[in-house]
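Follow-up to my earlier ticket, as requested here are the two runs.
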Amino acid sequence: MRVAIAVLCLMWLCSCESRRLGRCDVARIFKQEGLDGFEGFSLGNYVCTAYWESKFKTHKVRSADTGKDYGIFQINSFKWCEDGTPGGKNLCKMPCSDLLQDDLKASVKCAKLIVKTEGLKSWDTWDSYCKGRKMSRWVKGCEENC
């Protein structure tokens, strides 16, 4: 019995570690944070990119060639945020841990800087899975929530 309780507690802790937002939740937050039409890209472009980068997991961290990638947009620590990566530039002027917040404010703020300086082409996933495709499907059915 104690083993079963311990296993359940561990499962609960793991589920708290990585939160996955719903598509419409992401669309609503992105719209509130000013991404709809930002730099000429529709809201669907940002939702599509976030999906292919992280499957909408706000706490996702993965190793990259240089540094690590953080949060819903998988923003790299070598260039954009601070996590102690040697030679890191921290152009977004924030700790990488800020990119793991469920409110997505820091992620959107940093993504805006990336898009302003490099465009959405900075994300390979946008180029491979979103660019030139119908983006309305990423926000379909979310209108009443946005």
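Run two:
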Amino acid sequence: MRCSVSLGRKIKTFATKMVITSGNEEDRGGQERESKEESILAMLGIIGTILNLIVIIFVYIYTTL
């Protein structure tokens, strides 16, 4: 039991020492570029899913004829 209490105290003290910084201009540019990359990847994922569904529909129709 003593070990878990000590661990809880360490976590609490670590959480109180955390500092949030706004970052510099380079970090912001990197974040904007990363956000743009994520949106492009998400769009490609959606397009890929739609194309897969179209292929599945055509294969289903072809095999049932």
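The only thing I checked on run two: The two ends are 69 Å apart (CA to CA). Let me know what else you need.
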